[in-house]
Amino acid sequence: MKPLLPLTLLLLAMLTSAPAQTPLLAPDLLILNATVRTMDPARPAASAVAVSGNRISVVGASADLRPLAGPKTRVIEADGRLVLPGFNDAHVHWLTGGFSITNVDLRGAKSPEEFTRRIGVFAKSLPKGRWILEGSWDHENWPGAPLPTKQMIDAVTPEHPVFVSRLDGHMALANSLALKLAGVTKDTKDVAGGLIVRDAQGEPTGLLKDAAMSLVERVVPPPSWDAKLAAARAATDHAASLGVTSVQDMSAGDDVGLYQFLHERGELKTRIYAMRSIVSWEVLARTGVRAAFGNDWVRLGGLKGFADGSLGSSTALFFEPYSDTPETRGLLFDQMLPEGVMLERVSAADQAGLQVMIHAIGDEANKTILDLFQQVTETNGVRDRRFRIEHAQHLRAREIPRFGAQKVVASMQPYHCADDGRWCDKRIGPERSKGTYAFRTLLDTGAVLAFGSDWTVAPLNPLEGIKAAVTRQTLDGKHPTGWVPEQKISVEEAVRAYTVGSAYAEFAEQVKGTLAVGKLADVVILDRDIFKIDPAEIDQAKVALTIVDGRVVWGTP
Question: What are the phi and psi torsion angles at 8 (to 5°)?
């Protein structure tokens, strides 16, 4: 062994004498002459980034890094463009998003007539008997905001069962054929945590809310493997085009193997943290899997639950009745029933080391889940569990500081602010609206914000979410200085929530979220500097280049 000692000492001398951060070998990729915002407080700005393999090897000045280039180094001249860590969307419904790309698009329908026309046109492109699903319609886009009914679509879909969902996923419309196949009639009783909307004669209108949607969902044929594979490919391509390099899939269920299959074939362009339903927590617990198990591409160990519905469907749970429908305060989701069952699930899952995140939108739902998380923490003891509330949408002032105090991640989707802000005051009144999407106060009271889109409920594009968080302008243009403007945050804070905050929310802050030496080479280059332009124009910026794992997956330099 003695002959090896001089070589060992030589290598050690080379490593210790090399300039700080300088790799011994030429990097595989160099980004030069850039405006780099690293999100790393140790070095917040730079003009160049070097990548070796799938990791960042150097962050510094272009003049210092250019000489590192070797004959095989790919050099990207950024020409002053903005370079950021890849965006991490903390809340998506991945396959649903993929299917939405190839399904009927109802999001942009501006009237009931256009809604009907789009469904009719799409039906003509399908074989007889094929289900029409997804859609993401929004009746708030229509004059007077009337809810759709089966009569609107029966005539154009006589041979196709239809079950198209509102964009929030808490309400869906079935045509008469779909209701017939599901056996839903005037005599069908409501289910716990759900509502069959009926006309004056008690007949179902075709609208089903929350748990009642299961009445039709149970007869919808499951998608084939090939169909799911196509949807996943569409989703990962779409994400790459928007600079989204990581997502947290709230409804992955049993599809983790599908993502692994794409990764093994080299087709996956997006890192995925996959969640199961809290109802099936024992499936993971029995394997011994704990939170964030897997590799840098596909990880699991998170559980998603629901406390209530949505504001748009009037099923989010509030302490006080809705302003426009005073006969209801919303619905407690069926997963919360009977009383105490969610506490049992969360406590057991937490003891097993799994991460728990609960959807809560109404103020009573948020308080209920904060109380539940506090009780579990007191019972199971202190540890780094990173409980999350998904949406954290409508909060009373007294609950806001509890996120920071209890170390509960506020996983929020800022685009909803621009969308719901058009009609939120109508639904719950301006006073309660003051606690809606309380980004500023949550940050100021010590909460971690993790931003996402809730795709397909909202567009996947992070730049639209960043604009919404910074300007709080609503989509109808009626709040040019911002709706509830005191809750605005800065561009820096919004980008941080889409990178650092989202990485923290999935236990991944050691490997991504910032552009720092040793971290994964997930990088996005924008065509303009969103820190310098008019914030109202942030959503007009485009992704010029997306790099994942050190590989260009979208755009050309």
Answer: -60, -45
Question: Phi then psi for 302, rounded to 5 degrees?
Answer: -105, 150
pLDDT digits (tens, 9 = 90+) for 491-546: 999 999 999 999 999 999 999 999 999 999 999 999 999 999 999 999 999 999 99
DSSP string, 382-439: ------EEEE--B--TTTHHHHHHHT-EEEE-THHHHHHTTTHHHHH-HHHHTTBS-H
Question: Among 20, 30, 19, which Cα is nearest to 521's?
Answer: 30
Antiparallel, parallel or unpaired: β 48-52 and 55-60: antiparallel
Q: What is the pLDDT of residues 157-195, one digit of tens each?
A: 999 999 999 988 889 999 999 999 999 999 999 888 889
H or E segment at 346?
A: helix 341-351
**E strand or H helix at 275:** strand 271-277
- Coil, strand or helix at 235: helix
**What value does the mean pLDDT of the chain take?**
93
Cα diameter, the chain: 94
- The domains of the chain, with CATH numbers, are 4-80 (2.30.40.10), 95-217 (3.10.310.70)
Spatial distance between the Cα atoms of 296 and 365, rounded to a whole number of angstroms: 34
DSSP states along 32-80: ES-EEE---TTS-EESEEEEETTEEEEEE-HHHHGGG--TT-EEEE-TT
Which is nearest to 412 in space by CA: 376, 431, 438? 438
Question: Distances in Å between the alpha carbon of 338 and those of 306, 309, 320, 369, 537?
Answer: 14, 17, 22, 15, 48
Write the pLDDT tens digit of every residue in 93-118.
999 999 888 788 898 899 999 999 99
What's the CA gap between 296 and 294, in Å, rounded? 7
- Give φ, ψ of 91 to 5 degrees: -160, 100
For residue 364, the model assigns a pLDDT of: 98
Tell me the three state secondary structure of residue 135: strand
Both tokens assigned to 378: 């007191």
Residue 205 has pLDDT above 70, yes or no: yes
Q: How far is CA 493 from CA 440, 470, 502, in A?
A: 10, 9, 12
Query: Six-digit token pair at 225?
Result: 């493997």
* Beta-ladder partners of 92: 249, 455
The pLDDT confidence band at residue 20, using thresholds 50, 70 and 90, is: very low
First-to-last alpha carbon distance for the chain, in angstroms, is 49
